[in-house]
Amino acid sequence: MTIALSILHLLSCLFLIVVVLFQSGKRSGLSGAIAGGADTFMTKTKAKTWDARLAKMTKWVAIVFVLMTLLLNLI
Fold first, then answer.
1. DSSP for 11-57, written as a single string
2. 7, 28, 36, 62: least buried by Cβ within 10 Å?
3. Residue ranges of the domains in the chain?
4. CA 35 centroid distance within chain
């Protein structure tokens, strides 16, 4: 039982790392303001929805990761 939970914990850990790394940075900084936006309206909308999905996914995977950590700690 603990081996299966440990494997699920490891998988959730790796998935959390991947989801966080796929997120785009929140700051475009001064370079984005000076260079201007090369993005069209459609690409901005797609990026926001993709980033929103990744942010939601990060929250849920983090909750699963914390619960799995507590569960494994209690066992």
1. HHHHHHHHHHHHSPPS--HHHHHHH-----HHHHHHHHHHHHHHHHH
2. 36
3. 1-12+45-75
4. 28
Query: At 35, is the pLDDT very low, low, confident or very high (cuts 50, 70, 90)?
Result: low
DSSP state for residue 64 in the 8-state scheme: H
Q: Which two tokens stand for residue 22?
A: 């796929």
pLDDT bucket at 2, cuts 50 / 70 / 90: confident
Q: What is the pLDDT of residue 23?
A: 87
How many CB atoms sit inside 10 A of residue 64's CB?
15
- The single-letter code of the amino acid at 5 is L
